[in-house]
Design a protein that fits this description.
Strand content: under 5%
Family: Belongs to the dGTPase family. Type 2 subfamily.
Number of helices: 19
CATH architecture: Orthogonal Bundle
Largest sheet: none
Domain HD: 75-206
Number of strands: 0
Keywords: Hydrolase
GO molecular function, one term: dGTPase activity
CATH class: Mainly Alpha
CATH superfamily: Hypothetical protein af1432
InterPro entries: dGTPase (IPR006261), dGTPase-like (IPR050135), dNTPase_2 (IPR023023), HD/PDEase_dom (IPR003607), HD_domain (IPR006674), PHydrolase_assoc_dom (IPR026875)
Oligomer: single chain
CATH topology: Hypothetical protein af1432
């Protein structure tokens, strides 16, 4: 019978010298026996998928609130799309696919209900109490809030997975995070796997928000003709299939856009690696960001990002729902802060100074529909 521990090491033997390897991990906050039949980062990935916060992503909005339609993307489908893109890039660059998948699947665990509108509203509510930032909240979920294990709070993930989840961090917060915050204070980079997950996130939501925008009727094909990246790939799709129309034409165009962005990301990053020649993970940390698009594609991606901000994210119908979402979050926070007896017992703090953060944890963990349900229970007379 083969040695299962040895097999787990062999799974990473093909990786580049600057990739993150399980055997070189900085470890977990609470020491555990080595996993059998899987690597440390496979274990992280599995814990994330089985977490309560991951399941909740199914009912948290991406752009459109959950009740607005069954076919729009949610935080869950978005996270799966990010993981797929990130694994493709990592595989081609001989980087750790399991780590990049774990980071991708966990990166949105701390998002509030109602997307960015919910986050902005909760941040305003928490401004006098340290603010609210969804990257830090994702870290709180995996370090503290998940309740699955008898030996520790959270999921006890590896340092490298937690580092990848924390994409942004103020210097003030970084000082409080110890080893995890050092790179923000010293100007160092995270692993290439973390850098890939970050870029894969942008590739996924920029392109799939086009699909959702068209499906909702908030974007038109005429508007998309403003975009060079759309015109190039639409013309390529029609050249291959001259009679193409409707949904098939849209999907053929978007899949070509995604493919171009992924291939360019691989090629530009490979060129950066060849130029800087890192020989280890530490040399990656001391280098400038190495995962990037080429100049031409980066320009097209920025044009797409600005187009979506102007025409989709600031569309009056999206703004109306964002306004409602902000009112719901603000009203919930205010009601709970005014009378903590309205909170479930586990969110009632013994120390009053901790109460605002516990309220933020409670609201951030809500799905869109649960937040609406709580609002109705508190403010609508005929609701139980």
């Amino acid at each position: 019978m083969p040695d299962m521990q040895s097999a787990s090491i062999d799974w990473e033997s093909h990786l580049a010298p600057y990739a993150v390897k399980s055997a070189q991990s900085r470890g977990r906050r609470h020491p555990e026996p080595k996993p059998v039949a899987r690597t440390e980062f496979q274990r992280d990935r599995d814990r994330i998928i089985h977490s309560t916060a991951f399941r909740r992503l199914e009912y948290k909005t991406q752009v459109f609130v959950n009740h607005e339609g069954d076919l729009f993307r949610t935080r869950l489908t978005h996270s799966l799309e990010v993981a797929q893109i990130a694994r493709s890039v990592a595989r081609n660059l001989r980087l750790n696919e399991d780590l990049v998948e774990a980071i991708s699947l966990a990166h949105d665990l701390g998002h509030t209900p109602f997307g960015h509108a919910g986050q902005e509203a909760l941040h305003e509510c928490m401004r006098a109490h340290g603010g609210f930032e969804h990257n830090l909240q994702s870290l709180a979920v995996v370090d503290q809030l998940e309740e699955h294990y008898g030996a520790f709070d959270g999921l006890n993930l590896c340092f490298e997975t937690r580092e990848g989840i924390l994409k942004h961090c103020s210097r003030e917060n970084a000082r409080q995070l110890g080893e995890l915050g050092e790179r923000f204070l010293l100007g160092k980079q995270p692993s290439l796997e973390a850098q890939i997950a970050n870029l894969a996130d942008e590739v996924a939501y920029n392109n799939h928000d086009i699909d959702d925008g068209l499906r909702s009727g908030l974007l038109s094909l005429e508007q998309l003709d403003e975009l060079s990246i759309w015109r190039i790939h639409r013309d390529a799709a029609l050249a291959a299939f001259p009679s193409l129309t409707g949904r098939r034409m849209i999907h053929e165009t978007i899949r070509r856009m995604i493919n171009t962005l992924i291939v360019d990301l691989i090629e530009a990053t490979a060129a950066n690696l060849a130029q800087h020649r890192p020989g280890s993970l530490e040399e990656v940390r001391n280098a400038p960001p190495l995962v990037a698009h080429g100049e031409a594609v980066a320009t097209q991606a920025l044009e797409l990002k600005r187009f979506l901000l102007k025409n989709l994210y600031r569309h009056y119908r999206v703004m109306r729902m964002a306004n409602k979402a902000g009112r719901i979050v603000n009203s919930l926070f205010t009601a709970f802060a005014d009378d903590t007896r309205l909170l479930p017992p586990q969110y009632q703090a013994k120390d009053p100074a901790q109460q605002p953060r516990l309220i933020a944890h409670y609201i951030a963990g809500m799905t869109d529909r649960y937040a609406i349900k709580e609002y109705r229970k508190l403010f609508v007379v005929d609701e139980g």
